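does this look right to u?? magnesium ion version
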Amino acid sequence: MTNGDTTEPLLAAHQLVKAHGRTPALRGASVELRAGEILAVTGASGSGKSTLLHCLAGIVRPDGGSVTYAGQRLDRLPEKRLSELRRTDFGVVFQFGQLIPELTALDNVALPLMLAGAGRAEARARAAEWLERFGVLGQEDLRPGEMSGGQAQRAALARALVTGPKAVFADEPTGALDSLAGEQVMTALAHTAREAGTAVLLVTHDAQVAAYADREIQLRDGVVAPAEVTA
Amino acid sequence: MSSMSTRHILLGLLASGPSHGYDLKRRHDERFPQARPLAYGQVYTTLQRLVRDGLAEVEGTESDGGPERTAYRTTEEGTRELTRWAAQIAPPAPFVTNEIFAKVVVSILSGGDPAAYLRAQRAAHMARMRELTAVKTAPGADLATVLSADYALNHLDADLRWMTTTAARLTTLTAEVDAA
Ligand SMILES: Nc1ncnc2c1ncn2[C@@H]1O[C@H](COP(=O)(O)OP(=O)(O)OP(=O)(O)O)[C@@H](O)[C@H]1O
Ligand SMILES: [Mg+2]
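got this back:
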């Protein structure tokens, strides 16, 4: 799909269909994501970006079509295996935050490591590194209710990346950030993708953020618009 | 218009001390890394006009055994003119003229396919924005490079936002016409 690249995609969705009640959100969307690739997903509000991200990340099961991750059909995986895989291989940043309100920023980021078996001290040390990379060190003792929107967003990104996932799904991760903070976050994210080979699905309506990606797909009414050929 | 800003840019470069033409060209191209490089001929004619208008004067000529090189320095009047220009507000978009805008309007008037044009232009804009982002975030990028890439990125982004809104308006209009 991309410049004759023949390597197997890490993640491939084929002809995804999904409705929320009677509202169609995806109507045959297909997309491929390779290891180390940053893919920007843009499109109008309501075009199905978040729904696509949720289907790819195994959070929502599609009504039709397939999602294949590293050779296995995610959409057919039993719930227990699916949540295990999400924990070990995926990192997700939701469009509307979802940090745990009772925990500090540091403990929110350290939690996924501890769930994966790391000791508390080590988990907290690594969590602090990630908070620093995203420019929110110094706010590690704040709880989500005491953080600014942009601080919470960066803590959520740190939490998604701290376990070294193979794929990160980020839904508007810079929506609450000013341009310099957004640049810092995107530079760190792009660096991680390049260095660690993490695949990143990046939903954004901001073209300057999408410009950090290797390529862009646009959703229109639940389908992927055909790619334009640039002369 | 562009010769006016070249005048002031050269005056600005002369503000840090006397310089000859080649040196000014080189420093210009360093300070404005993504701009079209200044032609040496343009530097030379602009310097002569600055001298004619009393804003710069000849400092001296050296040859070093090689070809003769004339060094220029700014005058008091030149310094005043530079200060005036630097503080003067640039007129905010006094005329709305732009190639993309013109193409869309002409395409609508002539029954063309503005939506297809807008999609292709968006892809080209995004490709250029990816290039500029890579330039800006490359390790060791200097401040002049970062500032000029930022400037270009923000302007391309503004184009894109207008293009996205226009594409959506066209869809709505078409839907209304189809429904009627
Ligand atoms: N939980 C839900 N219940 C009912 N309808 C939903 C739900 N989530 C999404 N939808 C609908 O599905 C469609 C796609 O929504 P989705 O959230 O995927 O869009 P989006 O592209 O992410 O939009 P935005 O840019 O506003 O975040 C919309 O029409 C929306 O109203
Ligand atoms: Mg959304």
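Chain A touches chain B at residues 44, 187, 190, 207-208, 210-214, 216, 225, 227-231 (CB under 8 Å). idk if thats expected tbh
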